[in-house]
């Protein structure tokens, strides 16, 4: 019988700031969220990064002999380095010694390892990385997928993303009847390349989703769509651009606030509002993105993730486990897949 404490496997060697920032965020999560974190990687390196007086009842170091670098070809590296930290962490989930996994390392390697070790949900050809964007309508986020797992896509992959995204939006984000859009260069049905045209037709004919048409770039944050699908090439560019815009706007706000005594008073008055703006726009507040379509809770973080991002990613992983995200996705997708055969 498994422990009631949620256990999160952490690829402690993955990311630009590993292991120090990864460990710091994980330890904070163990203290504030009550989860047990399994830090996977080089034991000595991880141990040296642990803060003093770390509660070792909620933090465990799991040895891994290797790590996968960002410049390695993902599938070959995952197969060749069987004892790499991402593989060892993924095996913990497969063997039910952990309930979820988080990695800020090579996203392609994380996906390859998840496919090889956890497998796909029945009927899913390609998993997608789904991330939640804020919109101009407060409390009404939009789920974008894929944002990097699949650079090249077939129309049926995008159709599956739409179905998986609709289920996630409905059962996890609480959207009553998710409105689905296809990211395209125009609203008209006849716009776009061959992939967009063929995908549009599939989505239009799919009775299991509420497809409302194409979404242009300006529509992404409008709040009119609950789920927007695109291939991973376009989605990753969109994700990185959105992150940059958020940072630019926050920097401009800081620079344009008045200086001197009046500026200090004004800043003090505006501080709560600025904090809420930051929370809505800063990717660190969201932490990571779910790899949807694999048989396990897998979160992929930004390569630049620091402790706050890691903490929030672990919070997301805990919420996914607590809300039985995988069970919902698997049961609902199996029903839809069986009725469409």
UniProtKB/TrEMBL annotation:
Family matches, as Pfam families: FA_synthesis
GO molecular function list: acyltransferase activity
Reaction(s) catalysed by this chain's protein: a fatty acyl-[ACP] + phosphate = an acyl phosphate + holo-[ACP]
The protein's annotated pathway: Lipid metabolism; phospholipid metabolism
Subcellular location: Cytoplasm
EC number in record: 2.3.1.274
InterPro entries: FA_synthesis (IPR003664), Phospholipid_synth_PlsX-like (IPR012281)
Main subcellular location: cytoplasm
Keywords for the protein's UniProt record, in alphabetical order: Acyltransferase, Cytoplasm, Lipid biosynthesis, Lipid metabolism, Phospholipid biosynthesis, Phospholipid metabolism, Transferase
UniProt superkingdom: Bacteria
NCBIfam families in the cross-refs: plsX (TIGR00182)
Sequence similarity: Belongs to the PlsX family.
Subunit structure: Homodimer. Probably interacts with PlsY.
Primary role: Catalyzes the reversible formation of acyl-phosphate (acyl-PO(4)) from acyl-[acyl-carrier-protein] (acyl-ACP). This enzyme utilizes acyl-ACP as fatty acyl donor, but not acyl-CoA.
PANTHER family in alphabetical order: FATTY ACID/PHOSPHOLIPID SYNTHESIS PROTEIN PLSX (PTHR30100), PHOSPHATE ACYLTRANSFERASE (PTHR30100:SF1)
Full protein name: Phosphate acyltransferase
Source species taxonomy: Bacteria, Bacillati, Cyanobacteriota, Cyanophyceae, Nostocales
